[in-house]
Amino acid sequence: MAHIVGGIFTSHVPAIGGAIARGLQDDPYWKPFFDGFHPIHRWLAGARPDVAVIFYNDHGLNFFLDKMPTFAVGAAAEYHNADEGWGLPVMKPFPGAQALSWHIIEHLVNSEFDITMCQDMTVDHALTVPLALSWPGADNRPVKIVPIAINTVQHPLPSPKRCLALGRAVHEALLTWEGAERVVIFGTGGLSHQLDGERAGFINKDYDRFCMDNLGADPDALTTHSAVDIVELAGSQGIEIVNWIAARGAMGPHVHEVSRNYHIPISNTAAATMLLEAGQALSRVA
What we know:
Helix content is 32%, strand content 23%. The chain is α/β, with parallel strands linked by helices. The protein has one domain: 3-Layer(aba) Sandwich (Protocatechuate 4,5-dioxygenase, Chain B). Strands 6-3-8-2-9-1-11-10 form an 8-stranded mixed sheet, with helices on both faces. It is an enzyme of class 1 (oxidoreductase).
């Protein structure tokens, strides 16, 4: 079976990609956020994953309001990035873990998840920015990827409970995979933020800390709120926490917190990063 080494949870704000492109990691505005990735870089050097399973949300590059799947799983040999209009450099394609993708898809369908299977899938900043943060270098491609997109845009939105169940089903699929790949799980987006309307710039530190405090120890606590509740608590884009919830489900029951970082604001967003190691009884490293 696949060996799940850990999970990386991070914001994916497009402006982060712009800061990387301009080499602003040590700029006073950006440094507190980028410093949160130093422990992740050290951990990845030791963990040496082969595959990244990435729970994220598409922002219109691949899906739009006229066709918005609730859950979509990539099954491509490679995934192309494209210009989203943010001024970010277009990255070269990411290699896909195609056989593992199909195994996950088959397990999800057998587990009665109605998903969209994508043999051709374009990926946006919600996937490219976290990978660039984790493995600096524009041409760095140390892992193959399995992208899993969750609808966080078009109502009705999937419930946090359903997203956690999705992640747990992915975990089951990884346990039944015959390969020996070392897998890192990503959950991207958030935390609290709203980009438009009367509450533009809204941040809820209390809810963000509730999510970070419970993600490892008690992810079911994050499902006590409905999707609409989360929009109220965390802003219309704060619903991206469901990507974190699904990714946590994919890690299995036992994790160990290695590091966390919380910094506000980054481009009107509560920017956060967490690293959880898989397969150990829960404890917290200060």
